[in-house]
Amino acid sequence: MNIPGVPPPQLPELTRAQDRISFLYLERCVIHRDANAITAADDKGVVHIPAATLSVLLLGPGTSITHQAMTLIADNGATAIWVGERGVRYYAHGRSLARSSRLLIAQAAAVSDRTRRLNVARTMYSMRFPGEDTARLTMQQLRGKEGARVRRCYREHSKRTGVPWNQRDYNPDDFASGDRINQALSAAHACLYGVVHAAIVAIGASPGLGFVHTGHERSFVYDIADLYKAEVTIPVAFDIAASDSTDIGADTRRAVRDRVHDGAILDRCVRDIRALLLTPQSGAIEEDWLDADEVNLWDESGADIPAGFNHGSEYEVDF
């Protein structure tokens, strides 16, 4: 049967998640498709964005997107995320780049085993404490060390920029109620959450199965984002708060975009997630996992069985 329309690209033709631009935030525009590009149109004109280079498209208030645009985004393995104004609220996201569930299975296995979950959490903290041994620390001890590290980071950037710092105090339902530094931190962290969320779903992991954070649909997003806040979002937020910005949200988004524009943060996300989840217990992992577009049947022997044909003959008995 002939299916009308442009055929989607094959998996090997897609740009790898870690090689794409980090994120693009759009608001108050109409998003459509022109050949292999996404177009964003408002009263100032039309901008073309190559779909193959996108990692995540943040759709803010006032955006209207066509069916053809979403088809192109999905075909190219990008993730569309619907967010609130200034990108500080998350509502929903689109499909993943991955076709395989093997990374998800490894994640579920690790988070379901107390010992393995603790080891992953310790590894996460060790990434933040270079040169320190976290192998024997309890979760309470790790949380204490992390709290002290974050407080020290805030004090250092407050001294560097001259921005007064008291505490992290914000209302997620009222962005404007916070002071300048808390507004900047909220906007910066929201951008980072979008980038990390896109990386997680793009490679087939679950944003909800966290190791340090738990009980939330984005627990693993918060886990991974915490690895980069001291390096990316906290210094950016203090820089913007110290500037003469009259639009903290927009200026912070642009500053975070400039900080991560080279795609290095996506590459690090992918590498760090794989390093955390693909332990020796999860078995050998092929680099083509993302490209695997196959369905198998589970068997209690531990070996997957090919799907797609009738296995009834295995159980036929002559009476």
TrEMBL record:
Mn(2+) binds at E146, H213, D226. Keywords: Antiviral defense, DNA-binding, Endonuclease, Hydrolase, Magnesium, Manganese, Metal-binding, Nuclease. Its EC number is 3.1.-.-. GO terms for biological process: defense response to virus; maintenance of CRISPR repeat elements. It is an enzyme of class 3 (hydrolase). Its cofactor is Mg(2+); Mn(2+). The keyword Calcium does not apply. The keyword Heme does not apply. CRISPR (clustered regularly interspaced short palindromic repeat), is an adaptive immune system that provides protection against mobile genetic elements (viruses, transposable elements and conjugative plasmids). CRISPR clusters contain spacers, sequences complementary to antecedent mobile elements, and target invading nucleic acids. CRISPR clusters are transcribed and processed into CRISPR RNA (crRNA). Acts as a dsDNA endonuclease. Involved in the integration of spacer DNA into the CRISPR cassette. NCBIfam families: cas1 (TIGR00287), cas1_ECOLI (TIGR03638). Homodimer, forms a heterotetramer with a Cas2 homodimer. This is CRISPR-associated endonuclease Cas1. It comes from Actinoplanes teichomyceticus.
